[in-house]
Amino acid sequence: MLMLKDPSLLRTQAYINGSWVETGQAFPVENPATGEVIATVADAGIDGTRAAIDAAHAAQPGWAALTGKERAAVLRRFHDLIVANADDLAAILTAEMGKPLPEAKGEILYGASFIEWFAEEAKRVYGDVIPGHQRDKRIVVIKQPVGVVGSITPWNFPNAMIARKLAPALAVGCTFVARPSELTPLSALALAVLAERAGVPAGVFNVVPSLDAAGVGAELCASPKVAKITFTGSTRVGKILMRQCADTVKKLSLELGGNAPFVVFDDADLDAAVDGALIAKFRNAGQTCICANRIYVQAGVYDAFAEKLHAKLASLKLGNGFEPGVTTGPLINEAAVAKVERHLRDAVEKGAAVVAGGRRSNLGRTFFEPTLITGVTQEMAVAREETFGPLAPLVKFDTEDEAVAMCNASEFGLAGYLFSRDLARVWRVAERMETGMVGINTGLISTEVAPFGGVKQSGLGREGSKYGCDDYLELKYLCLGGI
Ligand code: ADP
């Protein structure tokens, strides 16, 4: 059983209009490491979603009427409460999602950093004064909140994916209906407990857990009361939402699939590249959308890199995320394991060699051993599709042009990584890489102070940074005549 310092953080009702509601329907939430049911959560369904949209719509003008400073004060308290309760929030997160407890705590603090950042930004939603185009005219541009935001988020970051949407939305005066992944609703509900304690008014933040992802998604997209959808998840579902938003011409932010290339040039600091690859590939057991998916290594250092990475894999410890020292938890479910196995089988059939791992762990079910394969080519599924698991495939290349061409031979463009000590090459390759983010001599790029997002079929919009409010704001131009 989950032991919390504050057991009231574990809520199982939907949170609608400031009330915790049972809905008559419920679904189980499992611990992916053990298969054990942690809790049974109320299913808000389409009716609950509609009620949440109505509440958010009614609450929005009042919330937007507060000053930025007043909203900032609420968000600041929310941030402080998240930090104060980080241990419990991390435990809930590890229980429902599986990642190691220290990594879960890292996610909680990462999520909180967005609340802090946008609390600060709430006071800085500046407009513009534009010199008039006629002598008797003056032009002013103001920024206003878009209105009600519908949010749909995945299970791999059950806290942070919500926090980094919720924070800018609330900061600028939007209200919010969150539909968390059905696999990880408890972290979202725990956030709502703390938002309520921080003084977020009823209706401003609603959480509608539901098994009916498609139904709730369709309701959010169709409702004329929802002004914007923000989504993190697969490109497949992102496209469905985009189509569904066409009827009401809704604004959309999409953070979709990646297939991140990770390039190691001959002149790289090889130890740094190995450390970078380890973190970019194996963090969250490979289950992040910016995980290195294909590792391109220049011929001159290919064997040395493979050897060093192989040796480093020994530092990973697979296990239940609650056990001390564990660095790599289970995958979210058996379907995720099956996908890793499919990619591995396809690669081996086409000539790749397994250097380390390569099979399910004897820990059972959802555990897969950290795996390294060499001799990978662009034709293999592992180089074309997002694996979302602890499988590192090494592809050999000869020239810079060849590496860039391989990086860009993808419909995705979220993150890319490159390791080189040649400054000119760093600039050239970073500029040519068709991605929204480039990690240069680092495998860790996520922070609230930088704009996170992708190009091509990896999405629309940016989250975090001074640009992060833009997705939740409309520009309004005021033309003053007769002056
Ligand atoms: P992932 O592979 O990260 O789980 P998905 O796109 O399948 O990506 O899921 C992301 C989120 O979208 C999850 O909360 C999931 O329940 C939800 N989802 C899945 N299908 C739909 C749909 N048709 N409409 C709206 N949301 C959906």
Automatic annotation (TrEMBL):
An example Gene Ontology biological process: gamma-aminobutyric acid catabolic process
PROSITE patterns, A to Z: ALDEHYDE_DEHYDR_CYS (PS00070), ALDEHYDE_DEHYDR_GLU (PS00687)
Active site: 255
Keyword tRNA processing belongs to the record: no
GO molecular function: succinate-semialdehyde dehydrogenase (NAD+) activity
Alphabetical UniProt keywords: Oxidoreductase
InterPro entries registered for this protein in UniProt: Ald_DH/histidinol_DH, Ald_DH_C, Ald_DH_CS_CYS, Ald_DH_CS_GLU, Ald_DH_N, Aldehyde_DH_dom, Aldehyde_DH_Superfamily, Succ_semiAld_DH
GO (cellular component) term, any one: cytosol
Domain annotation Aldehyde dehydrogenase: ranges: 20-477
Family matches, as PANTHER family: SUCCINATE-SEMIALDEHYDE DEHYDROGENASE, MITOCHONDRIAL
Protein name, entry field: NAD-dependent succinate-semialdehyde dehydrogenase
Source species: Blastochloris tepida
